[in-house]
Amino acid sequence: MKIKLNQSIKYIDFQKVILLSWHINQYSLKQFSEIINIITINNTMRFIPQNNFIILSTCNRVEVYIYSANSQSILNEIITDVNAFTKNIFKEELNPHINYGINAIKHLIHVTGGLKSIAFGEYQIQGQVKSTYISAIKVQKICSQLISIFELALRLGKLIRSNTIIGHNKISLSSLAIDLLLQLNPPKNNTTILVVGTGKMAVLAVKYFVENGYNSFIFFSNNPKKEIKGIQGINYSILPISLLIKYFKIYKFTFIAISPNAPRVSINLKNKPKYSIIDLSIPQNFVNNNELKIINMEMLKKINPYTIISLKTCLMKCEKIINIELTNFINKNNFRINLNNYVNNTN
After folding, report:
1. CA-closest candidate to residue 244, choices 199, 291, 295, 197
2. What is the CATH number of the domain that holds 186?
3. Residue 282 region by backbone torsions, left for phi larger than 0, else alpha for psi between -120 and 50, else beta
4. 158 is in which domain, residue-wise?
5. Which of 49, 70, 132, 143 has its CA 20 to 30 A from that of 225?
6. Are 34 and 86 contacting, i.e. CB atoms less than 8 angstroms apart?
7. Environment class of 168 (CB within 10 Å of its CB; exposed 0-12, middle 13-18, buried 19+)
8. What pLDDT digit, counting tens, does each position of 185-241 carry?
9. What global pTM score does this model have?
10. Is 7 part of a structural domain of the chain?
11. What is the rounded distance in angstroms from the CA atom of residue 345 to the CA atom of residue 337?
C-alpha cells in the first residue's frame, strides 16, 4: 500500500536564483541616480511576474533578486532595458554585477549584516532589508522561495551582530560623515547645525551630533508642520526649505539628506566665509569650490573600512557563522528536494 504524502513540499532550486546589483562605487552619482529611477517595481514587472523578484534599493545600492526558471533571459532583458535608457544619457553601458544561486544568497547575507556597506557594519541596512522584504510580501505577494532567502539573510544579519563586534559599533553613513567632518573642521559645540531633510538619515545625524556635544538644530523641510519622530528632548526648530538660503549664509555647518526628487539647493557663495557641508543626497547638491568643505558620497566611497575598526578577527568570525548557517540551510533544502523526489516516485 502506498503512503499518501503532501505533494506541495517547498524547496529552493538554486539554479533559479539570480542577482543583479548596481553599487554606487561603480558609477558617478548622476549615473547611480538614473539607475534608481529605472529599476522600479513597475518597470521590472514588464519582464517578470511581481511575485518572482524583490528590489532592494538603498543609498548606495540597487539590487534585483530574482527567482525564475527563465532567470537568464530575464537578466538579459533587464540589462538591455537599463542600457537602452541610460546610454542615451551617458553614452556608455551601466552593467550590473551578477551573482547566481548560493553566491547570490550569500551576497544578500553580507549586505544585510553590513559587511558590504561603505560604512562597515552599518546598522541601518538591516532595517532597510527588513522593510523591503515586508513591503514585497504585502504589495507583491512574493513566492515562498524568496521569502525563505530573505528570512535567512535577516536572521543571519541579526546573528552576526549579536555574536561579533559589529553589533557594538553603531556605524552609519551619517555617523561616518560626521566623524570625518569633526576631524577636518570641527564646529564649536554651541554652533547651530542646519539639517536639510527630516527622514531617517537626518534624524540619525542629529542624534550622532548630540552624542558629540551639539544641541542646537534647525531642520528645513517641504512640510515644516510635520512632526519629526525620534528626536524628543533635542533643541530644534523646523522651517520651510525656501528659507534655507537665508540661514545657510549665516550658519557654517549643514547636513543634507534629501531624496533625488527633492528641490535642489543652489547657493552662490562667492566672497563668503568658508562653509562645511555634509551632503548625502543623490545627486549631490553642491560642487566643491574654495568656499566649501564638502563631505559627500564620493569622499565616503574612498574611505577604507579597514581603517575604521579592527576587522580581521571580526570578519573571520562573521564568515564562520555565515558558512555554518548557510551549510545547514543548504542541507535542509536538499532534504526537502530528496523528500519531494521520493513523494513523486512513490505516488
Report:
1. 197
2. 3.40.50.720
3. beta
4. 14-169+312-332
5. 132
6. yes
7. exposed
8. 788 888 899 998 888 888 889 998 998 899 899 999 888 888 888 887 788 999 998
9. 0.72
10. no
11. 12
